[in-house]
Structures are given as C-alpha cells and as structure tokens.
Amino acid sequence: MKRKKVLLIGPPFSGHLHPLLGIGQGLATVADVIVLSTPKGVKAAAASGLQGRAIMAEHEHIVLAISEPGRAVKNNPLRLYAQLKENVGLMARLQAELEAIFRAEQPDLVIADFVVPVAGITATRLGIPWWTTIRSPCVIETPDGPPAYFNGQTPARTSLQRLKHAAMRLATRQFKRLVWLLFRREFRQIGFHGIYRADGSEAVYSPQRILALGVREIEFPCTWPRTVQFVGPALHTPPFNGPPPVFPDDGRPCVLISIGTHLVHAKAAVSAAIREIAARHPGIVFHFTHGNAAAPVERQEGNFHEHAYISYMDHLPRYDAVVHHAGAGVMNHCLRHGLPAVVHPLDFDQFDNAARLVAAGVALPAKKLADLEPAILRALHDEALKARCAEMSRIFAAYDEVGTITKML
C-alpha cells in the first residue's frame, strides 16, 4: 500500500510547533511527513528527525515580532486589532507559498495549527482534506460554558452570571465580525468569506476534525462542536545540548519558574520577584528559565539559578513544584508528571487555562507578584494538592494522542 503524505504546518513558536513535531514523529512511522514552518521551525523539525520545508523565510522577523508586542494584549480591542493587522498583512503571501507547495507535493492530508487557518483555506481550495490542532481547546466558541479571553471565567452559578457569560459570548462574536468587516478585502482575496459557516461553526477551524491537544477532564462543562476530538496533549521538546540545570543533593526542594518562550516584557519582573523570594528562603532552590536557548543568560546567585533554557522533557520530573504562566506546554508537562503548580497568567488564553487548573485542584493561583511567595510555600507542603496532582497524572497517562491520530489517518 502506498504511504500517505501529510503536511504539518505551524508557526515557529514552541507552544504551537512542538506538539506538531511530536505528532509528526508518530505519523512518520506510517506516512511521509513534511513540516512547513519558518526557518527557525524547520531547524526544530530537523532536530526532531523530521523533514522540513521553509515558508515565510524573508518575513520570519515579522512573524516573530507579532508574538512579542512588548506588552500584554489580553482582550484590549486596540491591541488585538494591531496584532491582527500585522497577521492579515502576511496572509496573501503565505497563501501563495502554501499553494505552490501543495500543488507540488500533492499531500493526502494537511494538519495545521489553529493560528494558521490560511493553510486550511488553501487546502480546501485545492480539494485537500485538512485537520486543525489546538492546544488550548477552551478558546473554541461554544453555546454554553465560560467564554474565553475574559480573564479566566469559571462556570456560572447564578442567573446573573449566566447572563454575563451570554453577553461575553455575544461580544466575542461581534468583535470577530467587526474584524472580518474591517479586513474583508484582504480576507476575500485569500478565500475567507466569513467568520462563521452556515451551520454556525467557526470557519478558521477544520470542518472535518479539530484535534484538541488537551486533557478533557480539566475542561469546564460545555457543548463542544461535533468536530472536536480530545486526543490528549502531544508533548515534545527537540533535543537541547546546552548546560543542564544543577539540582541540590542536600535534600532541599527545587522549584522551576517558567514564563514560556514569549512575554519577554514580563520576565524581568518575575525574575526579580523570585530572586527576592530566594534570598528569604535559602532552604529552597529556584531555577528560572527564559525559555530561549539563544538568551545570553546562565548564572547562579546562591540558591537562585538563572538559565537560558531548561528542557521540560529532560528535567521537569526532578522538580518539586513549578511556577508557570499557564501556557499550554508547561501546563501539560506538569499534569503529565503530577507536579504541583503555582499559576501566574499574563496574557492570551493563560487566564482561562489557569482558571481550569485551579478549579481542578492541581494548581494554586498567584494573580499578583506578591502572591507568588505564599503560594510557592504552600505548594511545597500541601499534601492534598500533591495527591490531586498525582491523580491527574494517572488520568493523563490514559491518553495516547499519537496513537489515536495515527489510527485516524
């Protein structure tokens, strides 16, 4: 039987690309896999043993800059508009590159990260099946349940809260329609004719399969679109040959602090806060990672260690607790290993992820920097928290995301 050809498409950001690379490694056993990303992403694919092909090579610096606006975007409409405007400006060029590759490669299937909907639009135009991957399924619109991007809403308990959530869902839909109206000329040029399909589903996601790379058990109750399939988190980190973290051998607990690969503007403040906490608690070792292997940082000040990059795959199980921003990557790595977490969300869908982790009892909230110290101390000694994390690890282990997707293929 002829092997199928699958194209995986994602931006060069680890939270989006690494799950695709993990999926790609599994699919490569039964299909010919090609990863399409910017040169930085292609390099990560090669390090993971996958064939890659560069797209947007001349505009990679713009792609990277969009993810680092220098301040939190949250649900600020003006900042969202500015970010969207830069994205829209790249879509026609990206589509031209993708269409040329699709015609040359003739893939049997396209699997694209949810932030690259133009890949799906292009695949549809050429009659190629496509699936969407999404590592934060909570951002998908649903007719009920807490709406996303409103600072971490939790399930409504009263009629007033339900009314509030309904108003938020309406605001989300109206904002998206306004965006389409503002950029309708550019959207129509790439074949994007509306935010919603006739059946009400969101046109940026595949009408065939939306692969939810998350743990369904931590999600709030809601009515998911019929195309959503929870396959479980696809965890992957390309090999890293930099200096490893040094763990204490004297019995002191060790805490990892990770604010992900983006949000450079916030890391200095968090690092300074942790450095002060470390000075007050010499009995605890703190490892702060910048999430960037190229960062010129590698130093130790007593029990505070600062690293450019720490591989979750290689080292996370050795930590006693993790402080993180509720990004999907580090969140799922912690769930896998049953590690107590302190969540300090900063932007995007992180507030929604944090709300789910706290509600599930596997993380403690730290909304402000001042909340970090008491939350860390509690996380290290809260046996009930540790027990809930261990149970979630057992739930996590039941997922076989790569095997499930391979069977779908």
Which terms would index this structure?
2 domains; 7-stranded mixed sheet; 409 residues; 14 helices; 42% helix; Rossmann fold; alpha/beta
- Main sheet specs: 7 strands, parallel
The chain-level structural class is alpha/beta
Name the beta content range.
15-25%
Note poorly predicted spans.
none
Average pLDDT level: 92
Please list the strands of the largest sheet in the order they lie side by side: 3-2-1-4-5-6-7
Helix content: 40-55%
Cα shape? globular
Could you state the CATH homologous superfamily of the largest domain? Glycogen Phosphorylase B
CATH topology of the largest domain: Rossmann fold
How would you portray this structure in words?
The protein is an alpha/beta fold and 409 residues long. It folds into two domains: 4-237 and 399-408, Rossmann fold (3-Layer(aba) Sandwich), CATH 3.40.50.2000; 254-397, Rossmann fold, CATH 3.40.50.2000. Helix content is 42%, strand content 15%. The protein is built from 14 helices and 14 strands. It has helices spanning 14-27, 39-47, 60-66, 77-105, 117-125, 159-182, 184-189, 264-280, 312-315, 328-337, 350-359, 372-381, 383-397, 401-408, and strands spanning 4-9, 31-37, 51-54, 109-113, 130-134, 209-212, 228-230, 254-258, 285-289, 298-301, 304-307, 321-324, 341-343, 363-365. A seven-stranded parallel β-sheet has the order 3-2-1-4-5-6-7, sandwiched between helices. Strands 10-11-9-8-12-13-14 form a seven-stranded mixed β-sheet, sandwiched between helices. Helix 1 (14-27) packs across helix 14 and helix 10 crosses helix 13. The model has no long low-confidence stretch (mean pLDDT 92).
